[in-house]
User: Fold this.
Amino acid sequence: MEAPPRSPYDTDMSTRRAQRGAQKGWYQMNGRNGLPIRVVAAAALALAIALGIVTSASAQEELISIGSASLSVGAEGSVSVNALNIPDPGLGAWTIDITYDPVVVSVVACVGEHGGVCNPAFESNILRITGATASGIIGDNSLGSAVFRCNAVGSSTLTMNVPLLVDGTIGDPQPVVAATQNGVISCTTPSTNGGDDGEDDVFDCSDFLFRDIGQAILDADPSDPHNLDPDNDGVACEDLPPRGDPGTFPSTGVGVGGEATAGQIARWLMAAFAGLGLAMAGGIALLRYRAARVGVHRR
Assistant:
């Protein structure tokens, strides 16, 4: 029995279904813009990876941080102030104020790094670290350290304020935008084991890179509970190299000829600025001073 003849309507619908099926297969093979689906997928994957790399890089933001410590009452501990993820041309000048609770902790000593200086008594509850360098500090570096003593049970947040942070562009230092990360000193009840647990002797010269931090601790407590001056000559950690004394007025060359170097003058000026609390202006001034000195030598 023969099938009834197909109507023109049935023939037209069959043709349309075939065309749609062919079109769908073409889209699946090539994509709507004429690109193979595999190429589109690969491009999307590459874009996602690139975005992940950018996000990871942006997460490495410039950061000024201070460490934390947990101590018994009467004990002392050191925390560092660090500049992290600083890009080229590097950090040129900085002033960092650290506020603490003087009821809970007190500052025993502090030292600046990279030619900087520290004023442990900038205010009754604030220490200041300030410095400047014409070479620029790139990457992760310590800008200084402070030794705290626990006076009472409790905790003291080490809150940072950064009134000055500029890069090392000679003659025209630019602001550096950096996040801050505070620290905390936690003071706990002293051990009551009935014996000498040695908590008073918490420092050793091997803990330091330079002699000056040991000397600052010794000067703060000449009884020398940490035995930093075993021969009792008033000089701590004599086997360590000295960093130099930024508080000494530079020689003008009397008796030896010549004039004070830019580095000597700069160190003395930074010490003076820190003592007077004028490091914000001093840091910029030193960069410009050093730029002028470089210009003189290049002529």
Q: What stands out?
A: Residues 8-30 form the longest helix (23 residues).
